Amino acid sequence: MDLPVDEWKSYLLQKWSLLPTSIQFTISTAETLRDIFLQSSSLLQPEDEMFLKRLSGGYLVDKDPEAPLFYREEGNKKFQEKDYTGAAVLYSKGVSHSRPHTEDISLCYANRSAALFHLGQYETCLNDIIRAQLHGYPERLQPKIMLRKAECLVTLGRLQEATQTISDLESINNFTVKPTLVDSRFQILQKNLCHLKMKIQEKKNLTEILPAALPKAFEDMDLREENEQISSASSSVTLCTDPLKGRYLIATRDILPGELLVKEDAFVSVLNPGEMQPLHHGLESKWRTRVTNGDLYCHRCLRHTLATVPCDGCSYVKYCSQECLQQAWELYHSIECSLGGLLLTLGVFCHIALRLTLLARFEDVGKIIRKLRDETSLKDICSPESKNLVKILNYDLGANEENGEIVQTPIPGCDISGKYENNYNAVFNLLPHTENHSPEHKFLCALSVSALCRQLEAASLRPLTTGLKSSKLKAAAAPEFCPDLDIWGVAMLRHMLQLQCNAQAITTIQQTGSEENIITNSRQVRLATGVFPVVSLLNHSCSPNTSISFCSTVATIRASQQIGKGQEILHCYGPHESRMGVAKRQQKLRSQYFFDCNCPACQTEAHRVAAGPRWEAFCCNRCRTPMQGDDMLSCGNRSCTESISRDHLVSQLQDLQQAVEMARKLLRNGEL
Fold first, then answer.
1. What is the β-pairing status of strands 539-540 and 570-571?
2. Which of 71, 76, 175, 294 has the greatest number of C-beta atoms within 10 Å?
């Protein structure tokens, strides 16, 4: 999911193993990312690109004109079964494959509006009715959809609009002309209209005092006092740096449990595709009815919705609204649209790396280009001990830079005034740990980025100059951009290596089971992967003093316990003491984040493990002392004479586990 698909990984790792030792040595000992990228890129052959193209072609991301009818019929089956949620999702799949301003898309929108109506989502239903009409909903079916519109408006209490809709419906030529034959559908429509008119009159005559809207009891609060030094952070924390720790946050005052410390919108996020396997022709239908994250969440803001709005150019990317669609198109999707299958094949990290460079254009491109050239020509920032840690180009390049000098900044990622912001400069200064990644991994990332750059060039896409009309983008001369995209390839490689240690999983809680059940199952699932420059400042602890939650693309960090003034603000990178033992935590942190954890939880548990186990498998039923022995167990307390067969205890334990599982099943089925 994060890295390329297994077939591409295996292919490149085999390619690496077949390289001459001298070439492997050259790449392994390269001092800069530029050297790694250029050496690896030169090894990408046409047959490699053809293999990648075949893999990418397995993903159905283009519009298929035959798919809308299939999904509409499948949605109708769900609708007849009164599974309106399932029907809405299938109609959405039909919408995503339809071309704009066609009967296909208008019918899918209209059918979805019916499902949404039965789900009680009246505002969303109205939006779909408007969309169906904008895309040319057939005149012969207008009465049906207008009646639904009137019903929504009446339910929402918008009586004047409902009256006007009924009037418009009655004025339709086909409706006002008296039919020569008795038409049952005509009579049903008349009956429904009469019923709606009575309902409108009842609501008009009903005089009731509506209670004032109650404030939200648990409305999420913004930061009380935003930090002047760190954007998106509370004034109760400050940024420090240390030769061993790198950058980190500490408390400037005593912090109480529950206090909001950071509230940061992701600088970039990419929706995880979920279990989206490539198609194997001949084995199954190419149109799948299985639901993935991409069918339920906006690809820009990650909002959950049953009424997605598709990209006009591809079938994969969907949004919650026209506004999100337009913003995404202007920021990055105009470039990504034709690369859907390739990006799914190369993985989320490669997708994020591309999107980061695309977003970089909306800051000062000229300064970023010069920064990239200087950074990639020097030895890369690989570790906190590196001298380059404080010898970075200042983001807001001033007069000193014009004189050929490098501006000294106290902490990497900060601007000349010392402020750390949620911007590309902060992202660029996240550590890539180049020297810690294996040569094979760097080769895999470099060739993947190189293949992506080749596709951008082949499609005549200039990702940093083409189609930019946003006022955010400052004017820059075309020659200032590297024509062969090498510099941007190096930047993307840097980002791919950064992401292993700095990517943040954006999670959500998904519930399973029907509403009728006494209990429901809920689980935390990974919805997307994002980059949060401020959140990345927090160091790890297996027993952290903060907790993190997500709403859309916004990460919120709160104190989970009291934090004293001067204490470090700590976050868990995944391996938590409540979920795994110290040995497994240390192994995971070392392999992914390249450090040995010495947090108090690890130190305490390591001493405990060294002193011996805390428990045995069974304890004495009388005195609770651990039982000892093999087949026959006896109490470890010499004054106690209790003994028992191990097989007997194991049998009892199995019976208990079966009983508990049976109880859970009965509860799920409501059989109290």
1. parallel
2. 71
At 38, is the secondary structure helix, strand, or coil?
helix
Mean pLDDT per block of 10 residues along the chain (672 residues) reads: 91 96 94 91 95 92 93 96 95 95 95 96 95 93 90 88 84 53 58 71 56 43 80 94 90 94 96 70 64 92 95 94 95 93 95 94 73 58 36 35 49 88 92 93 96 85 43 35 70 95 91 61 86 96 94 95 95 89 91 91 72 62 79 81 86 88 83 78
> 3-class DSSP state for residue 309?
strand
Separation in Å, CA 397 to CA 369, 388, 418? 12, 17, 13
Tell me the β-bridge partners of 555. 264, 550
Token duo for residue 645: 């067969």
In the three-class reduction of DSSP (H, G, I as helix; E, B as strand; rest coil), residue 598 is classed as coil
Q: Which two tokens stand for residue 219?
A: 């409305």
Distance CA 173, CA 157 (A): 28
Longest C-alpha distance within the chain, in Å? 103
> Please, which residues bridge with residue 549 across strands?
556
Ramachandran bin of 418, using left for φ above 0, alpha for ψ from -120 to 50, beta for the remaining angles = left
pTM, whole model, 2 decimals? 0.80
DSSP-derived letter for residue 135 is T
- 């293949």: which residue's tokens? 451
With CA atoms as reference, report the closest residue to 357 among 531, 507, 526, 504.
Answer: 531
- CA dist 69 and 79 (Å) reads 15
Q: Hey, how many other C-beta atoms are within 10 angstroms of the C-beta on 619?
A: 15
Q: Which pLDDT score is estimated for 88?
A: 97
